[in-house]
Amino acid sequence: MKIIIAADSFKGSCSTLEVAAAIEKGIRKIKEDVEIVKLPVADGGEGTVDALVLGTGGTYETVEVIGPLGKKVEARFGILEGNIAVIEMASASGLPLLKEDELDPLKATTYGTGQLIKAAMDKGCKKIFLGIGGSATNDGGVGMAQSLGVSFKDRDGAEIGYGGGELSRIADIDISKLDQRITRTEIIVMSDVTNPLCGEKGASYVYGPQKGATTEMIKQLDANLKHFAKVINEKLGKDVLQIPGSGAAGGLGAGLIAFCNVELHAGVEKILDLICIDGHLENADLVFTGEGRIDHQSVFGKVPVGVAKRAAKRNVPVIAIVGSIGDGAAEVYAHGLTAIQDIITKPMTLQEAMENAQILIEQAAETVMRVITIKSDTQFIGIHRKEHELA
């Protein structure tokens, strides 16, 4: 029996590797002799670097950068075979770097993300995979561009400061000192969202609240991004306002399109290709996947559905182990998922669930395997193998 484990991290509690290890423990409590292949997976957010470095045998580099609120932080990126860099903006400009009472999208900057891009180019990397999930920012990528040499001046000729609250001051954009290595570097952006830059479905209205934005701040941030897009169009001749994905990471998608000539891709699909999941799925009998919460949004580029779609092409059943099940979760069944098992077994607080996530994940995997053995190994696997042979 061959089982693939390809799960996302449980944000705030378990990394993708810890989730996979817990699932493996639960499986082996029931079946010790199964072949298990663990594949780190992510969707462009937290865990992307680990997924690709560990999944492909890469190495890590650590650099000091400017964090979301201007303080210096250590950020890590990966270098894969062929001198390809993999960066996750969250390590330099992300929510995990701030406490809840520190969140402030009016001040948060993507400057450190630009420094990571520069560090990768300093290492000679001509190709960069950039995951942009988990941002604490709403600055349209202005900070990122500033760190790469772009100047944003107000009507008095002064450089604007950090954060989404400064964008309304932009009167001119000077790209004459943009690091020219950017023009020779292929940057592939991995994102799990397709939101436009502005409006009710844009960066500020949809993701502003989780970054600490109040109702009034959201209106201000949205208006500022709209002004930013207008100046980009006037000065650079690029219309970034309605491009799908331009609203990703508080508008970082728009900034990358405007100043780095990037390609936007579904994060999970790129990562699944890079870890060669299709090859691992050959002759697999069962797949375990998972994420912290599964709901109607999971069909839009999240790991469990991305994995399930690949497995469905080979008639391999997929079980998702999740922290919680939200509204509309049943929609995922139409995309290849066979079943969902949450980890909560009794009433408990969110804090308790997060602190005990690994043991709860292990117990959930054990429960799934017990149900499977009720059917008997020969019946469950035999039916699948017959379908696989006929496919």
Automatic annotation (TrEMBL):
Biological processes per GO annotation: organic acid phosphorylation
Keyword Kinase set for record: yes
GO molecular function: glycerate kinase activity
Pfam families reported for this sequence: Gly_kinase
Keyword entries, A-Z: Kinase, Transferase
Superkingdom, natural source: Bacteria
Family: Belongs to the glycerate kinase type-1 family.
NCBIfam families: glycerate kinase (TIGR00045)
Name of the protein: Glycerate kinase
Origin species: Bacillus oleivorans
